[in-house]
Structures
1.
Amino acid sequence: MNTSHALNLMKPDPSKSAPLIQLKNIHLTYQSNNKKVEALRGISQDIYEGDFICVLGPSGCGKTSLLKILAGYQSATQGEIIIEGHKHVKPNAEVGVVFQHPNLFPWLTIQKNVEFSLKMARVPKMVRRKTAADFLEMVELSKFANMLPHELSGGMKQRAAIARALANDPKIILMDEPFGALDALTRESMQEHLRKIWQKTNKSIFFITHDVEEALLLSTRILVLNANPGRIEENIANPFSQSLLTKEIRDIRLSNDFVEMKEFLVSKIKGGPAEW
Amino acid sequence: MKADVQKTPKLVSSDPTPNERSANLKIVFQQIFTTERLISLGSVAALFILWTVVSKLQVVDDMFLPSPAAVWAAFLDILQNGYKGTSLFMHIAESMIRLFSAFFLAVVTAIPLGLISGYSPKIRAAIDPFIEFYRPLPPLAYYTLLVIWLGIENESKIVLLYLAAFAPLYISAVSGVKQIPADRIHGALSLGASKPALFTQVIFPSCLPELFTGLRTAIGFTYTTLVAAEMVAAASGIGWMVLDASKFLRSDIIFIGIIIMGLLAMLLDGAIRYLEYRLVPWKGKN
Ligand SMILES: Nc1ncnc2c1ncn2[C@@H]1O[C@H](COP(=O)(O)OP(=O)(O)O)[C@@H](O)[C@H]1O
Ligand SMILES: [Mg+2]
């Protein structure tokens, strides 16, 4: 593989200073009925403000486990998560999460779902309403504000979940294969939505996927994880992150560079496409 | 042609034409009287006719099977003159006061306790043995004890009904909490929910579908227990009325008493189902 190309991409971006979030040498071993499963080994990564990190890997390689540790749902066997200098051990409003399934509160309207975190933070009602309305507009759901989640389609629900995470204004948003359950067309439009939202808000995003193309079309940086135990195989700045902002997605996708990069990533994922 | 001219303003105007009005009425009618409902009405009517015919033919003695007319007369009689010095309304009210005070106490204690138990295995471990022990007991078995302790008045009955309602409510709350997906709790915490907020704004509403199932079970069981308790020891109430009538072989009163009991039970269940429909519109849709 064109190693010089790849090596070049691995250089850290010098324009950034202190990392927002640090994953420091994360190890995780699950213990279930006397059987030990080493899920993660030695994961380290600095995340800067505005980074869009895609974690790419086959199913079972530990992506969800890593997200759970980052969110504070699960503690690492070894290593730690540092957010702006302090340890992150419990879930809180600093780290937002969008799950694979929209996970909205079924008894709250879309508007109330988006307002939830603001209510928890005791934001006055009027401000709450305005903020939620703004984010609903961003994800193009204003018309559906007063509906209950079960009245919306899967893609719309997932957009509402993204709006809900954004309204909370966390330092980073973690997403676990958020578009995995959607059909191909909806998935593409969701990627487009998310790209725009990210540009507009400049939020740091930690995005899990097993779709190579999705990773290339969204991220600024791609971490390839491989299984048994889950470890970082490849850590690459996405060469297309700049052109994504300016060029037509279709053109990028059809370019030789893109196809080549895709092949390179696929070859790095152990087992290849058949397994995932 | 004329119909064509009328069509345009029809879309705008809010006043329905006579034709539309009858069409609307027809739709409403069809919604109320579905085929299934008509079948239900039919089978009730058939039983009623059978009852009338059998009593007209004098196949069985009036004392065993009073005629519909006699039952209706008995109803009018107790409606006007009451039964044994107490009006029919008061008999029903007495029963309902017992039922609702017990039920209310059970709702406000069993549900919070069940929610906490569902959340904390340690608290559950402390409470579960008692629930598991007394739940399968027939309430009348410990009613005797309650009567000795609290007397024959309302206190013993309310405690009895409270215990009858408590177990199903508590169990439904526990199972409701256990069924909440971990991601929902995680998601709420990541949105900044504190422990108390988690209980009141996430765990409680998550359990509502389960709680309504529990409410229906509980009200059914409490109602059965109420009638039984009134038959064992009471001087008023709809259950007592039926038992008392049996001592005087007044089968017409027994009949009307049972019919009233049945209708009341259906009304109670219907009320809970209506509440559920209003409060848990997402049930079964997630
Ligand atoms: N709660 C658990 N207990 C035991 N093993 C687990 C648990 N969760 C995940 N694992 C194991 O850890 C590995 C990584 O799982 P996961 O993080 O879900 O992978 P991915 O999200 O990449 O598909 C798998 O082998 C899985 O079987
Ligand atoms: Mg996963």
Note: Chain A touches chain B at residues 71-73, 90-93, 95-97, 99, 101, 103, 105-107, 116-117, 119-121, 148-150, 164, 168, 170 (CB under 8 Å).
2.
Amino acid sequence: MVKKIITNKLKHDEIIKAESKNLNFFYADGTQALNGVSLPVYENKITALIGPSGCGKSTFLRCFNRMHDLYPGNRYDGQIILQPDNTNILLTDVDPIEVRMRISMVFQKPNPFPKSIYENVAYGLRVRGESKKRTLDEKVEEALKGASLWNEVKDRLQDLAFNLSGGQQQRLCIARALATEPEIMLFDEPTSALDPIATMNIEELMSELKQKLSILIVTHNMQQAARISDYTAYMYLGKLIEFDATNKIFTNPSKKETEDYITGKFG
Amino acid sequence: MTIQNKPAANKNLDSIRKTIANHKRHDFIFASLGTLVIASLTITLLILFLDLVIDGYPRFNLDFFSNFPSRRAARAGILSAWIGSSLVLLVTFFVAVPLGITSGVYLEEYAKKNWFSDLIEINVSNLAGVPSIIYGLLALGLFVYSFGLGQSILTAGLTLALLMLPIVIVSTREAIRSIPVHIREAAYAVGATKWQVCRNHVIPYSYGGILTGVIIGMARAIGETAPVITIGALTFIAFLPPSPIGLEPPFINFDWLESGFTVLPIQMFNWISRPQLAFHVNAAATGAVIIMLTLLMNGFAIKLRYNIRKKIKW
Ligand SMILES: Nc1ncnc2c1ncn2[C@@H]1O[C@H](COP(=O)(O)OP(=O)(O)OP(=O)(O)O)[C@@H](O)[C@H]1O
Ligand SMILES: [Mg+2]
């Protein structure tokens, strides 16, 4: 019954942008942090990952931009297929830099570079070899507008990014991730260091962003997942317990564990 | 109920206050001990310095800086010594800084972490503590005899560069390590290569720490005597090396690198070993100049670091 609903829905309007297939992940010390996770990320949708602390949400997210490659000894096993070109981005002969150019990431703590606001946003473009001032100016403006930060900073683009407030810094990081026109954006608890108003701003922003790209977000805040996401995945101990449309997960989950977690009986 | 509770609560409060007072006493004891130690160190240094200044006071005039050493104490100056020191330091700087920073960045960012890199790490840290005369002996064998560089400014510069290298490497690595992981990850996450991360982030953000190492190293190099004597610096020099900057093209020449030389500490050592008291005044004045230079360099380092840190805070 449940399956049918999903398949029907899929047939209608969902396009798969990326899909992890039977993904296992091992940290250098041998910890297996992911255990056979298979999960689709749909185009122009927000997919939320929820689950108790330590269940492997961040680990899973960081597989999508091969962040684990930065530390020797980590090992992936399984596939993440990126569409439309059907590439398995976990293959060793796929360059992690190419993956990061297509899939960008916003971190939990705002982490602007100790450079000017302008340089922060332009950095992704500079890395790609863009050096024409006109193009940079245009794209920086576009990205800052996209992150609804333009009006607040347009008169002080050369100021240090550290002089912005926490919420502004996080939007700056979003602009930085946006400037390179990624296909997917990953968010790891992007609002956990922010106050409610800044959080609301960023949630609105994400709903706008999904017109252009696909979003995968880790959040600890169940209301947030319910408010903004289209699909929700519940993870526990490195395994995917349940994945479904968000309103289905929050109103009528098919697994007992999911229900316990969502209703706060556990977690 | 409330009446019954009150005395108990008060008693509790008393014991909390007692504990706090007790702990504060530890604070106080430690702070006063620290102040005492710092004060005695500073005062010792100050007295030494003042002593030199007072002894050398009669010689503080322009002539002292613009005269060559002489058999007559009153006419002797440190011209060849300070120019020698400056040129040697110039070589040291241009050898040790690029080499040290590159090695530090390589070891921290590129080298695989295994037993071999551990071995290098231990060795580099140890080198910083090796007595300087050992460097002098190494330089004598390697630069003077094997490479045939002679007892020149180049040899001295290279020798002091060896001495300074571990300090620069260690401080570069420390500075790099203090860059937070999340900044580094942010750079990689937008698709930067390792080299781009080093070039645009790791090195610029480490300037403060690297600079401190460089200046501490230079301050050490300026006062080093043993290795420079070992390689055979002359003690009495009444000529200047050829000028590095010429009036005709190509304007820069490198003949000075092969020239004989002396440096400030050797000049000081030379004067102090004379029996005539008049020369001891010269030695004191030279000592004061060396200390002043060191202080100046350190002050400069602190100022620069402060300016850099103002822009970079994590
Ligand atoms: N570098 C590492 N080396 C070894 N084990 C790790 C490492 N990082 C995380 N782990 C382990 O992997 C598991 C998953 O961690 P992960 O950070 O993905 O959890 P999470 O779901 O994001 O938790 P949180 O909600 O607290 O952020 C945990 O058991 C953790 O202890
Ligand atoms: Mg996490």
Note: The two ends of chain A are 28 Å apart (CA to CA).
